[in-house]
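About this split. The held-out portion is used to measure sequence recovery: a designer receives only the structure tokens and must propose an amino acid at every position. Recovery is the fraction of positions where the proposal matches the reference. Here is one held-out target exactly as it appears in the evaluation file.
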């Protein structure tokens, strides 16, 4: 049965999005977006998704890394298998290689809640505008991958061209995008803490919801990015390496929403 996403539910809460990055059918993490610095965390992506679902995840951030590199979906069958398996319990946002109208349509046709457009959206805001007009602004996310203040297409590639990150974000907001995955490339996969200055600038524009990505290593990082106004955070290596659990993170987030930080340990 095709899963449907109902976009009329409240979005005020802070969401934790465990990341499942796919390369050659495996779950991996890259350091700073570098394909030559890969760590594998599992050979069965569906089992990894199931483990996150069992742990209480309400969202998954699924990235087709091969697709991102090729400029077209490559791991589409794996993505569909994940959504088919957990999509009734966990909302999935899908990224990687979505650079055509057809690719976005196909990604959402799996039953995924949201499609993430990056390189093509940064280069051509009208592409993102078409996607939002067809599917609704609650189902399209723009990925803003930032290095040295620039939003980059093909952010893993040295010398990739870029534009001012805040200008890119504002330009996409002007055409109807309301959700942004904002990634500090230099911190991604390093467990070095989020780039709070970058995130503050993104939130400070007041042009949409900012989902923090890159560097999160502890629950306190989640509390900090929530406190500056982010609506969620993508977390990968910290979960895979046991820095904290989904259950502990969710408890701390809920406590912060109620005005107190849950004790840890």
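Reference sequence for scoring:
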């Amino acid at each position: 049965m095709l899963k449907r996403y109902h976009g009329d539910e409240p979005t005020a809460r802070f969401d934790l999005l465990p990341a499942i990055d796919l390369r050659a059918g495996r779950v991996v993490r890259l350091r700073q977006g570098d394909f030559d610095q890969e760590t594998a965390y599992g050979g069965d992506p569906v089992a990894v998704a199931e483990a996150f679902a069992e742990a209480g995840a309400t969202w998954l951030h699924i990235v087709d890394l091969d697709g991102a590199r090729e400029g077209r979906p490559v791991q589409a069958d794996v993505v569909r298998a994940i959504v088919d398996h957990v999509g009734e319990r966990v909302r999935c946002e899908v990224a990687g290689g979505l650079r055509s109208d057809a690719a976005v349509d196909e990604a959402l046709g799996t039953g995924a809640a949201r499609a993430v457009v990056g390189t093509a959206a940064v280069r051509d805001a009208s592409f993102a505008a078409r996607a939002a007009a067809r599917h609704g602004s609650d189902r399209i996310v723009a990925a803003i991958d930032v290095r040295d203040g620039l939003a980059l297409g093909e952010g893993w590639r040295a010398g990739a061209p870029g534009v001012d990150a805040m200008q890119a974000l504002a330009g996409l907001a002007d055409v109807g995008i309301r959700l942004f995955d904002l990634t500090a490339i230099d911190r991604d996969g390093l467990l070095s803490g989020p780039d709070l200055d970058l995130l503050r600038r993104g939130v400070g524009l007041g042009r949409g919801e900012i989902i923090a990505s890159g560097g999160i290593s502890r629950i306190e990082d989640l509390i900090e990015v929530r406190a500056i106004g982010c609506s969620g955070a993508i977390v990968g290596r910290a979960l895979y390496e046991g820095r904290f659990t989904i259950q502990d993170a969710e408890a701390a987030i809920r406590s912060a929403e109620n005005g107190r930080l849950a004790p840890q340990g």
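Annotator remark: The chain is about 35% helix and 25% strand.
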